Amino acid sequence: MERILILLIAIASHSTISAQQYIDQYIKDANKVALSWLNDVNHNRYEVAYNRLTTQLKEQYDKTTWINQISELMVEFGDLNSRVIKDISFQSEVEGLEDGFYVFVKYNTDYEETKNHSEFLMLKQNDKAEWNISDYYYEFQAKEEVEK
Asked: Rounded to whole angstroms, how far apart are CA atoms 105 and 92?
């Protein structure tokens, strides 16, 4: 009986370790995609960035509208000085969304024309195991507001 219990504990431990390894890899892969996407946006490669959006976002925004909006936003932000991960997490269940694999990333970002800038990305893995941008939002103060 004792041997069976030890065997069951060993199997459970191995399963937990394996699952954590997959999650760590998902987070690493998704962050790589997020940084690449942000790099494309910061270097005016908007069409490439648009192609990395989820199908659901592409259904909401046609390419021309999205490119116009993101290009205006980047002019408002100014040049990128730095970006550092503040928080990153994995979830397989998100309230209000279909089941799937999601990674949430928060960056502390320093743009030329903003202060206290944070960027948030939600990535979703598609049916081909590719990570795509499912949401992008941000918070910041304009430099002139801070200087007043």
From this structure: 15
CATH code (residue 141): 3.10.450.590
pTM for this model (two decimals):
0.83
Find the domain containing 141 and state its range.
2-147
Copy the structure tokens of residue 102: 């999601």
Distance (Å, whole) CA 108 – CA 87: 9
Reference 37, options 23, 47, 22; nearest CA is 47
- Fill in the amino acid letter for 118: S
Question: pLDDT digit string (tens) for 64-79?
Answer: 999 999 999 999 999 9
Split into its structural domains, the chain has a count of: 1
CB 144 within 8 A of CB 132: no
